[in-house]
Amino acid sequence: xxxxxxxxxxxxxxxxxxxxxxxxxxxxxxxxxxxxxxxxxxxxxxxxxxxxxxxxxxxxxxxxxxxxxxxxxxxxxxxxxxxxxxxxxxxxxxxxxxxxxxxxxxxxxxxxxxxxxxxxxxxxxxxxxxxxxxxxxxxxxxxxxxxxxxxxxxxxxxxxxxxxxxxxxxxxxxxxxxxxxxxxxxxxxxxxxxxxxxxxxxxxxxxxxxxxxxxxxxxxxxxxxxxxxxxxxxxxxxxxxxxxxxxxxxxxxxxxxxxxxxxxxxxxxxxxxxxxxxxxxxxxxxxxxxxxxxxxxxxxxxxxxxxx
Amino acid sequence: xxxxxxxxxxxxxxxxxxxxxxxxxxxxxxxxxxxxxxxxxxxxxxxxxxxxxxxxxxxxxxxxxxxxxxxxxxxxxxxxxxxxxxxxxxxxxxxxxxxxxxxxxxxxxxxxxxxxxxxxxxxxxxxxxxxxxxxxxxxxxxxxxxxxxxxxxxxxxxxxxxxxxxxxxxxxxxxxxxxxxxxxxxxxxxxxxxxxxxxxxxxxxxxxxxxxxxxxxxxxxxxxxxxxxxxxxxxxxxxxxxxxxxxxxxxxxxxxxxxxxxxxxxxxxxxxxxxxxxxxxxxxxxxxxxxxxxxxxxxxxxxxxxxxxxxxxxxxxxxxxxxxxxxxxxxxxxxxxxxxxxxxxxxxxxxxxxxxxxxxxxxxxxxxxxxxxxxxxxxxxxxxxxxxxxxxxxxxxxxxxxxxxxxxxxxxxxxxxxxxxxxxxxxxxxxxxxxxxxxxxxxxxxxxxxxxxxxxxxxxxxxxxxxxxxxxxxxxxxxxxxxxxxxxxxxxxxxxxxxxxxxxxxxxxxxxxxxxxxxxxxxxxxxxxxxxxxxxxxxxxxxxxxxxxxxxxxxxxxxxxxxxxxxxxxxxxxxxxxxxxxxxxxx
Lengths: 308, 587
Known about the structure:
The complex is a heterodimer. By secondary structure, chain A is mainly α. Chain A contains 12 helices and no strands. Chain A has helices at 2-29, 34-39, 46-55, 62-76, 88-123, 128-142, 145-159, 176-202, 205-212, 217-254, 260-269, 273-301. The radius of gyration of chain A is 24 Å and the shape is flat. Chain A starts with a helix and ends in a 7-residue tail after the last helix. The model of chain A has no long low-confidence stretch (mean pLDDT 83). Chain B has 2 domains: 6-257, P-loop containing nucleotide triphosphate hydrolases (Rossmann fold, 3-Layer(aba) Sandwich); 267-552, Rossmann fold. In chain B, 37% of the residues lie in helices and 25% in strands. A 6-stranded mixed β-sheet of chain B has the order 6-7-8-3-9-10. In chain B, helix 16 packs across helix 17. The longest helix of chain B has 18 residues, at 187-204. The two termini of chain B are 43 Å apart. Chains A and B meet through helix 9 and helix 10 of A and helix 2 and helix 4 of B.
């Protein structure tokens, strides 16, 4: 087990190196001069520009730039700074809580709604509730996030006035609409996954054995049916949580939340390579850690899986 | 006259399907007395499982049940869900067919046993755990106190079935319904499980309703027999009468279809003159049989056929020299077959026999090129196939046909039959559209199916018909070697008999050599010229069928032979004592 975790952690190194390299290369490949973009319409003397270019290693070949950047991280935990001189770690520190809250609220909403809807749909198979879940989940999956976001803003924000439309000035309620928007697709997929897994489990031999023991139907379902059918749901939720950071780019823009997603978007436009790479590295790290946790959780839920 | 513990009266079951109602059971009545074993026999679709399930209320929602089921005089069908639930597991319990899936994989055995006791208020907490340990000890799980904390996958198939039985007897039921309890098990394990059930029945005076298709199991266990066909009882009576003097033609047909493991001195052996020719050292013996006269009805379709290729200069169809096979998992190799040596001459059938985990299917896989050979040589018609360059290997592979166990899974459901049969020709770029279809018609004719099935799909055919298609496909390229991996073990006995007849006829007609992998000694006896017995990846014994199956030298072979039940209660009772003596001598 410990050996397995160590091996997995060692695998992180190449994953992170390769992904940062790719992101760095992409930012590098964007045409235009970032220093000029920084200056905007104001005039800038050649001397200032040269100093700035040197400070950000912009004249080095691409690979050298990249290695200098990685070296800084490894030796001094220096993730670089923006062209305005603000450290990237500072930006992350300020914006991470927003995105983390958004992801957490989304996770809670989609897990609860998805699993409950899936269970009820399986138990009332082919009845009204099942049909309702089937149709509504397809609709949610099919609608683009943008449309769902605007719809929620219109109905719950403008018409009903229940939740704020944008910004983060109203505490947790500011996050409800963005989280619902982000949860829509995954709730639908999760509900369908749980439904089909539970239906399979209820048809299984060990559920029949449990029924033959004389157990109550509800006990049979909760003790024998559910646990087995939730194992794939855990995999899905994990993978989804990891990909939420990507989804946050759109949602944070729609709802004007000052989170990491919005920052990445702005930094790409401003060609702030170090910021983009810093945040994306964080996303990648988060992704691999979540995947490791899911795999370990899997082993806990299903005793047939053992890691050596 | 004691009261019956379980009694079915005029049971009728129909299922509502999208094609209208289907009557599965059409008026079935019989009783089970305390301490009595009643065997319900019949083939798939006879309604034997459906009938017995009515006593537990375990049928799916679309079933309509009429008639009356009395459990100790109480009518089960009129009970409420709650009343029914109190019966399940306490007065009446079940042992299922598939021990691998009958236990919940994510719960410890202790949880599942304790739960069975707690549901019916028999015992709670620590007391329930102690009782569960005692139950496991009772059903013969060694080291029960530590083992009970393990999960089902940490037990073998036979042990899992013991655990299921422990659950079934937990609350001291009046009657146990055992639905094919040993079908998924190896013969030696089957014999042990049947012994256990017999002991428990005598100890607890429990009635057992045994559902099975295996007449050998019936002879071993049953007091009375109920024969079912298409949802009706065709014959019922004491086991000696039904198996000894069956009245109904269906019962007779069922008994005649059972492949028999013949003992030395069996009259049907007289009709076969066995010629043994020794060649080289151990493990290189080959035999040829020639039939003298017309074989009688029983041995028709058995090994009373001549070996086609008598040319002694021709290389063997298949030859294994010091073969070792291994599976690789995360760069760690596990050796599963060791030092395997055998020769299959052209036109010869070799039975490869063993229990699960013996490596017999692994050998078949290696011959098919689906597994790399770790060590040794695997010669097909003289050339070491694994060492050949890809192109020659492919050319050589057309000499090998294959028939798999499950005809439902080994035919692509989206391919029409014609395409299935001709696919080997497409793969090896042989013939054009017309000649391929002509070949398909020819083969369908050979496996006795009408050419009208060419455009049908596998699901439109029955299991036996599908296996005929599998055989036809295996023969498409006229192979010199056929690999048959348990080709009939998924089929009903009567279907199996027909397929085996066909198989041996085709073997005579086409003269292919065959590696016939099977766990069923009787089937091997019916077909094979020689036999190789494997255990845990090693060769135990090999020789002519007669040598191995009737004059076995090794104790493992003797155990295997002794464990196979025969459909004659008196003979089986004698064999049972002999087996116990053999095991006692070995212990």
